[in-house]
User: Fold these one by one.
Assistant:
Number 1:
Amino acid sequence: MKRQHTQKLAVGLITAAAALVVLPIILVIVFLLVKGIGAISWEFLTAAPRNGMKDGGIMPAILGTVILSMGTSLVCIPLALGAAIYLAEYSTESRLTRWVRLAIVNLAGIPSIVYGLFGLGAFVLFLDMGTSIIAGSLTLGIMTLPVVISTAEEAIRAVPREFRIVSQSLGATRWQTIRHQVLPHAIPGIITGIILGLSRAAGETAPILFTVAAFYLPNLPQSASDQTMALPYHLYVIATQVPGMPLSVQYGTALVLLLLVLSLTLVATLIRTRMRRNRDW
Amino acid sequence: MIQPKISVQNVYYTYSSDGLEALKNVSLDIYPNEIFVLFGPARSGKSTLLRLFNRLSDLLEKGDYQGTILFNGRDVFEPGTDIAALRRRIGMVFAVPTPLPGSIRDNLTYGPRMAGISRSELPDRVERSLRLAALWDEVKDRLDESAFALSGGQKQRLCIARSLTLEPEVLILDNPTSGLDPLSTSMVEETLHELKQRYTIIVVPHSVQQAARVATRAAFMLNGELIELNDAGQLFVHPQDKRTEDYVTGRFG
């Protein structure tokens, strides 16, 4: 009898803990929806800011975040994929492998502001790129590497070993085996990792602070060496730097950023479930 | 004198992981168009030996190898050997039938596609291999269905057909009927007799009975040593070595 009570209590506590995890995200979404939905309009999404950013829209910031996400992908995906394939398929217990793993663990642990300062020193100043989309993309791309490498490596390792053995016993080379048997089945996991990495990059302020983000730009960026506005930085600016900024605009901007990031995560989840359902092993 | 297809000369193999001496001074010759059966109790070194023939051992385990294995007179461990080409000429079928993800047709065209054989040749190869593996009639109308939808026996014959699409010279079957029902087993065994006309077949059998049914010549292995090698008619009826006799008559194993 007593044991059954303990059992019930334990299950109750564990369930409550799990439920508590969901609570903050729901509260954040509901709170932002209630406070920010009033600011969302067609103009808010498609027009440039006016009147000291108090009126108009946030289109340049949305576009900037999209551009930076694409730039981040260009930097991150080839490097991460190469590293993941190396680690999962080719690495032996060598010094190089140990260094690569150590680097990944450390990259993952570096605070984002440090990435920002690194980007400033390395790309903006040393390589003389200036505050530019390319410098920001490189900074965000490097920051995103660890999570994409780790998820991609895991996805590649999850492909059953038998497929590799059968493929090579049929006279396929190692690379053909990776290209035709391993990567196609690892793609869902890899895409999930990329999107999760990107959603983090899209929401970060510190790495773009010194490398690309502009307080206010009258024109849209024309090339990769231009600065751009970006949603997280814009939010930071209007929340702290602009006196008399209407609260609804701040909440509206936050809501747009949140929805953008959440929709990326949702896409990742959808791709994963879809592709898992389609596979027959 | 006929040249052996595969010649094993004084081969030793010791696993790095547990120091097991899997092969101790094994020498034997395998000739064209025979069904060469390699049998013995578990861990007697049969699979270890077979996997050296097409260097699948490279992928599976680490160990210390000594001796010589010649395929058509050439050392398969010679530096610079084109391993992919070697594996195309020495095909392998595993104990657990393992289709690759995709359709029946995908499975059958995979080897030739990777070998760079032209697409126009693929349908012919698919049909020929399926006929040889006695599977054509069962799957000819469903080539685009998933290979995983086949029954266990069909999957194994698919794996045999898949190896045949590369038109190998040697086909190794490592316990190909382990998971199959008696009917599927007899179909696979019949297939082997058909294949003997064109290929050199090496089989690790499921049982002594199966060994006796399919073998042209047979070799009995025990604890990494080759105990006895003879024509099937002799070996199973009048074994020379006491240990072979005990195993064949079921006193151990």
Note: Chain B touches chain A at residues 54, 56, 59-60, 84-85, 87-88, 91-92, 94, 96, 98, 100-101, 110-111, 114-115, 146, 148-149, 162-163, 166 (CB under 8 Å).
Number 2:
Amino acid sequence: MKTNKEIATYALDALKKSGAEHAQCLVSSGKVDEFNVDSGEFSLMRTLFNSSITMKALLNGRKGVITVNKLDKESIDNAVCDCISAADSSVVDEAEAIAPKEENEDFISGVITPDKNKLFDRIQEFMDDVKNEYPKIVLEQSVSKYSNTESVFMNTNGVNYNYTRGHYDISSTFLARDGEKSSSFNGYGVLLDSLDRKIIDVGMLRTLLEESQNQIDTVPYAGKFVGKVIITPACLMDIVLTALGLFTSDSTIIDGTSPWKSMLGKQVASDKLSISKKPLDPQIVCGERFTGEGFKSANMDIIKDGILENFTLSNYASRKTGFPRALNSSYNLFVKPGEISLNELTKSCDRGILLNRFSGGQPSTNGDFSGVAKNSFLIENGKITNALSETMISGNLIDLLNSIIGVSSDTICDGYSVLPYILFDGVTVSGK
Amino acid sequence: MIQDRVSPFKSLLKEHTELRAQVNTNRAVTMLNGNIVSNLRSEESGVSARMYKGGVYGFASGAEYSDENIRKVILAAEENANFMDSRIKKNKPMLPTVGTGKKELLKDVRDIEQKQLINFAKEIDEYISKTYSDLASRTIAIRCDSMEKLLTVSDGFDSHSLLPRSFVYIFLTANAKDGTPVELYKPFGGFGYFDEVFEKPESLHADIDSIYTDLMKKAEGVYCDAGYKDVVMHPDLAGILAHEAVGHTAEADLVLGGSVAVHNLGKPVASQLVTMVDFAHTALGEQAPLPIYVDDEGTPAEDAVLIKDGILTGYMNNRESAQHFGMKPQGNARAYLFSDEPLIRMRNTAILPGKDKLEDMIASIDDGYYLTKTNNGQADTTGEFMFGVCMGYEIKNGKLGRAIRDTTISGVAFEMLKTVDMLSDDMLWTCSGMCGKKQPMPVGMGGPAIKCKVSIGGR
């Protein structure tokens, strides 16, 4: 067994011989080269030779799943026994199934041949750029890596997808320091399929570095008001994914606690809001080509002009509830831009905050949230004023999505998502 | 159990090099309203090497555990260290020595069959569904993980260690009068294999009854009045306060990155009542929740006293940062997977108990909150922290009032700790969480009930 396909074929055959009526298998292997910068200095180079096999067996409607990272025959034989044993111990669930056969396909995406020296040089250049252009910034940690992976998905219905992909992944945490004073830390990550551009020019990096320098001196907000909040693309992904997780995902739709459980096709948000997941969009680096359940991925709308078009359900949850399954299981979010610039959006905000990072408790299924506004600024009379500290915000995510005043025409692409700035109303801002 | 293939390579390890074979296992069963939505077993194992040269590290790992692959991994780590050293030329000296020795395995390596976990979950689910039919939803999640490491180092202590943990998480959801869902969860369990930690499902019934009672109170609960308030934190919150608000800022790599602790060593950062320690393996005469005897750089582990009587007295270090700060390395370098490099991590971090009684602490507050359960927490290098609070009560005129809905508290650690004026005379440990810092890591945390002032979110 030398290739991932040979390994997957062997594992499926072994699962069937061991009694599985249906089975699926995902075999992956690849290599990662990673450079670490700590406290502004190179600290580590790391090379990982990765491999894994995940297999699922259905035995009389009972499911077992196992993942191991060794691909030799003995390890796979042991994993097959373990998988069958786990399934045999489970309970019958008619909703369990494997994907039907579609047209099989091989996919290739991203950069397949890395340039280790160029990556090192780009990181060095990034460190120099930060030092020269943003002298108060300390790069607390920067992890830059090239990853390549070859994945093979097969199941006993004859599904067979191969996906070969490679990308650069740059993530940095940083803060600004001036004597004994420092800003909050902030972090930002991007996926790249080429090293043609300077790292510092990608996504929101320049904006966030500059803003961190302006966050060394902060003012705790005194008092409490209900006002507006501009959520930046750096923060919007977390907010949207949290809302989708609470209101549209497997667990809350299966148990019926989602407030949106009967809202498919109905208005759940402001008509200014459209949210899609588009792993196949060319702006996304190495997006998903097939789901973990073995369905070929397609772009999908979740909310269109405020109307809930789709939940984000797995095939299992779909069969359990009767609602359609999601066409992909990616995190490649797109929020449709508006027609107003960020500058105009800010001018239209009489009293509120510009929110770059939200550090909060896990919101309730009813959508209630509260937490600290991090790396954020006060907006007064249409102008960004003081950087904030010790300032909390609270509200309800359902109310928030229905209280959109405007969406910016500016968008930011970080390789994972393409997102605008959104001005929301009705958020409680409180300080000491 | 991992076969020892690494120690024969000890003589080949150059400069400072660590060679580590490791197996991580995860066993998971999740029942959602009687459906098994997760029935998963996973195992990640392999070998890694890390070499220090002139101020930089080279690291490599591979899954295959053979003599041939161990040689390949050592060579790749050396090549990476040489590449970095040739490009950067920091020319730093060798790492400090920490003595030599060997720590053998203290516990047998075992496994638990999935059937045992599924049967346990089914019995718990049956109890809840029969006893509490008015619930909107119930989830029982069983999680067992273990981390076995076999470490050989060029200079330092070799070790064979094992950290198994077993937990049952109970999530209950009820509908409030307005029809909105209200939820509450609690983890049970700790260090050890599942059958060592959980004798039988019935032993959890009283705790489940208690969660249900709290949930019903919460369903009728009120939103907090946002603002800066007097609070008593239950010991459940003290551990996360110790870990998030103070612990992270005292990790030497974050200190070097500019955390608030950099300018506060030797200075008062808390009320004189506060002493905080990152325990290695034994705390207050008993085994700590997750005992660490040798870290992944081969340093023998000992307690790190972070705050003594309100004064910041130390940081948590790896060998390199200890050399930088002129401190003694105390065994805080830990790696999660075989393919992870050691990072500076906490082990068992706790605020030590005081002399007060919980009822006296509550009685001393005219208008505030008693916060009893938390569901997450984050901290900033500035010391600003937040915790999610998923259960608590109003305190009015020294007495407990209505339950509260989910909220968040925040503060700045070294300011907030100065407001601590009472600590209970008991303490509670937990180790159900994973700390996130490039890699996840199981950690223990603990403390007493704490009376202090914090900002609380609400309406």
Note: The first strand of chain B starts at residue 16 and ends at 32.
